[in-house]
Amino acid sequence: MVREGRISLNEFLKIDQALAEATLQLQPISESPRLDAELLLARALDVQRSYLFAHPEEEMDPAAAARFAATIAKRIDGMPMAYIVGEKEFWSMTLLVSPATLVPRPETETLVDQAMICIPRKSAMQVIDLGTGSGAIALAIARERPACDVMATDLSEEALAVARENARRLKLPNIEFRQGAWIEPVADLVFDIVVSNPPYIAKGDPHLESLNYEPRQALESGEDGLDAIRRIAISTSAIMKANGKLLLEHGSQQADAVSAILTEAGWADIRSFNDLAGLPRVTVATRRNEVKAGL
């Protein structure tokens, strides 16, 4: 029997046995334990998942078994699958990710959906993604709206290295990356659309314990989780064209607070939109002719 989150290299050398035991071990921490086990075993064997179904009785060599055991242990410890395999699907793109970036999440596609509504097809708008991380949002917009010029900023040079490589792999020529905090690297430019999925979890929130592999600075934002959103709401008016749009992702319980922050900062036509789970996840606002500016 396996103990302490390890696949026994002596007892489970056949593919079907290894998958069955790994699935049992992953059940307490994964919503898709069988799928996780299949993906990790295919990776350990350097084969397609279909190979596992076609060769269930094949014995694993000790090196592959050791690789599989090591990745299962990481998953049991709470490491996201995306970090173990090094990539994540988002908006029909396969993106590289690393512990320097957040793992792109399905609810963030709501932000891209709303950006697509704000950017007419074939329009040549200037778009910026603040705090881009892996580049998921900016890359989706650049691919869907190839006539637009897309800029993306991030404080982390390590995150930008991942985003740049994703852009290279996707062969997207209409995107540029700059290192720095929020609007600081682009203070000399103006944009039609500003999008951001900033950190919005409150300091000390118990949910942070389950996210300990992801960069804390991309998750936590002050005592109420809204410090980054306050800064963006105030500062982005300085880089917005008249009637430009600001699109923010936020927590499902924060829509009213975000709306109040945007109103205080002088934004107009403030509306919130639900994600696929029916939870308010994205707020869109329009720049007035006169709005407060500054950091």
Report what the structure shows:
35% of the residues lie in helices and 18% in strands. The chain has 295 residues and is an alpha/beta fold. The longest helix has 15 residues. The strands form 2 sheets. The protein has a 7-stranded mixed sheet with strand order 5-4-3-6-7-9-8, sandwiched between helices. A two-stranded antiparallel ribbon has the order 1-2. The protein has 10 helices and 9 strands. It folds into 2 domains: 64 residues, Orthogonal Bundle (Helicase, Ruva Protein, domain 3), CATH 1.10.8.10; 197 residues, Vaccinia Virus protein VP39 (Rossmann fold), CATH 3.40.50. It is elongated.
Identify the notable features of this structure and list them briefly.
Rossmann fold; two-stranded antiparallel sheet; 10 helices; 295 residues; alpha/beta; disordered C terminus; Helicase, Ruva Protein, domain 3
